[in-house]
Amino acid sequence: MKINQTFEKHLRDVYYLREEIEKQDVHQLLDKFAQLGNVMPSTAPIYFLIDYTKSKYLVMTNSTMEVTNRDPREFLEGGIPMLKSIYHQDDFKIYNEKVFPENLRFLESQPQSTHQDFIFTYNFRIQHKNKSMVPILQRSSYLTSEETGKPLYSLGMVIDISFLKKDRSIYHSIERSSLATKELLEEHYYYPYFEDSLLSAQESRILAYMAEGMSSKQIAWKLKIAENTVANHRKNMLKKTNTKNVAELIAMACRNGFI
């Protein structure tokens, strides 16, 4: 399996596979997502099951009416091509070229027998029937081929996050999860629009002071802003640069001539 394999190429590759998945595995995963959905806010979650080998939905619940004003039968009959037609194209490009390949890379690093233990989360925008774009969050798992480790089915849930998602960034995480425990393994941030990933003038100033070894308190005094504001700028810089900590952020900034 190639690490840089896109979602669309994966669909072409698995089209001819006819490997069967145990129905018990499907029901167990659907039950897990149903219980997770009971503690999620906003509208009722949409639950789905996708067969990648046929590019079609096997399950799609009625909550699609609440989120997109579309009958679930439109998805069941139209399959993945129908989803792509209402998927925000800039967001789909990120999913196709970044998010899905990262998921494949991660799965390739894990024993196939453990693939069902992981939940893959990301957000994207989908078109409502009134032409507005609705930000949604998807949490899903894969049922993979015992022979190749390739995803054959994806199942999980989707919720409307209009009440909290106001920017255009895409959050992507991978976690090991059960009903009792959750362990965050990876986090990534993507920006469909390049300008959203650029550091602001204030962030650049704060980064320069951080590189000089100044504390958040010292930077706040220097710029006459609240210490919490400095902390928020630091979090935003970590997201925009996909760095894990201040040391990594400063090293990246030095390598790229930001400071």
Automatic annotation (TrEMBL):
<keyword id="KW-0238">DNA-binding</keyword>
<dbReference type="Pfam" id="PF00196">
    <property type="entry name" value="GerE"/>
</dbReference>
<dbReference type="InterPro" id="IPR016032">
    <property type="entry name" value="Sig_transdc_resp-reg_C-effctor"/>
</dbReference>
<dbReference type="InterPro" id="IPR036388">
    <property type="entry name" value="WH-like_DNA-bd_sf"/>
</dbReference>
<keyword id="KW-0805">Transcription regulation</keyword>
<dbReference type="GO" id="GO:0006355">
    <property type="term" value="P:regulation of DNA-templated transcription"/>
</dbReference>
<keyword id="KW-0804">Transcription</keyword>
<dbReference type="GO" id="GO:0003677">
    <property type="term" value="F:DNA binding"/>
</dbReference>
<feature type="domain" description="HTH luxR-type">
    <location>
        <begin position="192"/>
        <end position="257"/>
    </location>
</feature>
<protein>
    <submittedName>
        <fullName>LuxR family transcriptional regulator</fullName>
    </submittedName>
</protein>
<dbReference type="InterPro" id="IPR000792">
    <property type="entry name" value="Tscrpt_reg_LuxR_C"/>
</dbReference>
